[in-house]
Predict the 3D structure of the following.
Amino acid sequence: QRVGVGSNASSCGHCRQCHGGDQHLCPQVQPTIAGRHGGFAERLRAKAVWAIPVPDALDPARTGPLLCGGITVFAPLLTLGVRPTDRVGVIGIGGLGHLALQFARAWGCEVTAFTSTAGKADEAKRLGAHRVVASNDRAAIEAIAGSLDVILDTVNVPLEWDALIAALAPKGRLHVVGAVLEPIPVQAFGLIMGQKAISGSPTGSRPDLVSMLDFAARHGIGAQVERFPMSRVNEALDHLRAGKARYRVVLDADFA
């Protein structure tokens, strides 16, 4: 059976989170790569709960990234109760953001893409955005004040936080999945007066992963990838470090 293993390979199986279907929040969850063998291996050992059946309709190269980056942006659609009538903003058109645009559009939402790269506007629309706003232009963000129900932040850099909070409609939410390395300063009244919220999440549970792959197969969603043979892994890593990857690099095993 064809299966995929994402960012997690093991969890305890007996804690409250595991029993409740939130295996990704297990205190003993073990990443697939960090701290264990498996990054570039031909074989991988994982607990069965983390081996997710992959629908036949999905291309493996475009599906691999869904099991980490894809679930990171798909799970909030489920856990936050995002509706097809909602207006969703996605900050960052990269490895996470390009998938978030596809999922949110297929979900039925009106989608706004935020990007600091003007040259990505057309690509963002091709991926699913209805409109594009410059994430580094405070005036452009202020022009859409009160218009978004959910903003999904997929980048790890400081942003115009107060302007983004103001862009939320009443009861709106800024949800962070990008590992922002600095504290997020926000004025309390910006949250209080509109009954707004800030939240975050890691990847997703097994049930969410299964739902995501079924949804991706139904709507033809996959990562935009560049493929390198494993024998050129150093070249692939240089390509990634240079910021040229669009938007995920896939290594094809060509072991002798």
